Structures are given as C-alpha cells and as structure tokens.
Amino acid sequence: MSVETAASGAREAGGSRGSSGRQEGPGGLWDSVKKAGFVIGSGILFLAAFGNSLTWHLQRFWGASGDFWQNLWTKLYVAYEGHDASLFFLGTMLAPTLAFWGSNALLLWVDITGTPSFITRYRIQLDKNNPVDPAKLRQALKCVLFNHVVISGAMTVVVYYLMSWRGNPCGPELPTFHWALMELAAFSILEEILFYYSHRLFHQPSLYKHYHKQHHEWTAPIGVVSIYAHPLEHVISNLLPVVSGPVLLGSHLSTTSLWYCVALVSTTISHCGYHLPFLPSPEFHDFHHLRFNQCFGVFGILDRLHGTDSKFRQSKQYERHTLLTSFTPLNESIPDTQKKGQ
Ligand SMILES: [Zn+2]
Ligand SMILES: [Zn+2]
C-alpha cells in the first residue's frame, strides 16, 4: 500500500509537469485549442445541417408518447401555479437527489458488503475496495453530504434566480423533442469544454496541492466519490460545467432537471469502479484516478486533441474502454498481460 502510494505520488508530481511540458512543445496548447475549436465547430455545423433528418425517425416514435409527457407537465404546472420556485426546486433538487442517492445506495451496498459477486466480478481495480475501508468512506460521506446539500443546494438557488431573470424555466409548454435533443447535445459539449479546462487547471501543482488532491485521495474511486472534493473545486469543476448550459440557453425546467439527473448518474458511473454490462464504460475516468495525468475530460474529445490520453491509449484499460455487451467481465476477456507499465 505504502509503495503504491509513493509510486502514485511520484507519478502525480511528475505527471503535472510532464503534461504541461508536452503541451507547450511542437503543436502546443494554442494549436490544440484551435484544433478543438475546429472539431467542435464542425460538430455543431453537422448537427445543424443533419439534425433534422437524424432525429426525424425518433420524433415519429416520440410523437405517440409526446402527449403523455405534455399532459403530465400540464398537471404539475396547474398544481403548482403561482409557485414556480417550489416546482423549480422539485425538479432541480429532488429529482437529481433521488437519481444520485438511488444509484449510489445500490453501489454502496456492493462496496460495503463486497457482495453480490455477480456485481463485484466486474470490478476494474480488482484488489481495491474489497470491501471499502469504512473509516475512509465515513470521512468521504461527510464531505459528499456537505457538498450535495449545502454547496449544490446554494447553487440551485442561484441558478433559479439566473434562469428566472433569463426567461421562464417553468413555462406551460414542454420543449419539442428536437429542441430537447439539441439542448442535451449543447449541454454535453459545454460540459466537456468547461470540465476539461477547469480540471486541468486544478492539476497545476499549486492548485492541486490545496484543492484537487482531496478528490485524488481515492486512486480507486467509488460512486459517491464523484462529488468528494474541496467545495471550491465542487463549484468550479463539478457544478459550473453542468449548470452553465441551461442558464445560457434559457432552458425549460424539464430539460434542466433531466440534464442534472443524467450528469449525476453518469459521473457516478464514471467513478463507480465496476465496468458493468450495458452501461457506459467507466475505464476513462478510473484511469485518471489511477494515473493522475491522463484523461481529464468527460468524453475524451479534448484529451484526444491535447494528447492527454496518450498513455491511456496504450493501456489495457483502453482496450476495455467499450460498451460491454456480454456478461463476461472485461478483466477476463481482456486480461492483464505480464508486461509492466500498462
Ligand atoms: Zn474523479
Ligand atoms: Zn483530477
């Protein structure tokens, strides 16, 4: 354990310098930013040009159930008429809280008990958290609860005033299916950009030492650790990248609430430590916790452009970084080889 911690520390310290050294070399940071702008710009143009035909078939499918959602919303809207703030907090606090703690309650059960084996066999770092250290977990939970209730709670109030000033998030009509999809795509792009750069900033040695080191205490993360962070980091790196999209686009409460739930569940999956069948792969961010200086973003787009996934792409974890569509754990189908440095 101590050897591993020392080795991790060396990688951690060397890593920050190493990555910043690379970025200023040939094809430096500015060049990468231009490339990122080009790729993201092209993506937006592509969506604008082909978005309609891409979603037309989905829209037809949605049409049958579209009325169902509008009727449901109308009932809520009428029930809460004149109480927009209550409706807003129900959507942006209660629903995401249920999504986060619901998924994490299941994961915590597995982490604490080390059972059932049909889940634990999908563990990424096989020798870790088996079961999780109770004292370390208790300490993390205190911080997670503080961040979730106090910091995220306060941010939701701020967002309510910003969105009310910007428009009417609790309007009587739901957004169209096309618009909701476009919004979710825009939120995701913005999250990738804001999370990647703020996260890399927190890896600058001086900021890392005071703020981000806390999140990296978990070299093998578990679900709740997704919001185990210094409060300042929680605001800048976790909350701002997620709430900026709905505020900038003046979104409806329905898409905002859905987006918060998606963001919280997907960060939980990224940290959960199990590569489960038919769920998004958590290998990318798990590798970030293992190696510190790789895989800073959410989707890996900016890591590819900035070359901050170079070691990841040579690893076994990269080979396993795929949607698992069978019940055979990837540790078995793609086992570790004898070679070191994977
Ligand atoms: Zn993390
Ligand atoms: Zn980090």
Overview of this structure, please?
This is Fatty acid hydroxylase domain-containing protein. The chain crosses the membrane at residues 36-58, 98-119, 140-162, 177-197. One of its GO terms (molecular function) is oxidoreductase activity. With 342 residues, the protein is an all-alpha fold. It starts with a helix and ends in a 9-residue tail after the last helix. The relative contact order is 0.13. The chain is built from 13 helices and no strands. It is 68% helix and 0% strand. The chain binds zinc ion (ZN) (2 copies). Residues 215, 221, 271, 285, 289 line the site of one zinc ion.
What is the rounded Rg? 21 Å
Largest sheet: none
**In percent, how much strand structure appears in the residues?**
under 5%
Would you tell me the overall average pLDDT? 85
The percent of residues in helical segments reads: 55-70%
Q: How does the overall form come out from the CA principal axes?
A: globular
Helix segment count? 13
Structural class: mainly alpha
The strand count comes to 0
Which oligomeric form is depicted? single chain
Order of helices and strands: HHHHHHHHHHHHH
Low-confidence stretches: 1-27
Main location: membrane
Organism: Oreochromis aureus
Domain Fatty acid hydroxylase: 185-308
Transmembrane segments: 36-58, 98-119, 140-162, 177-197
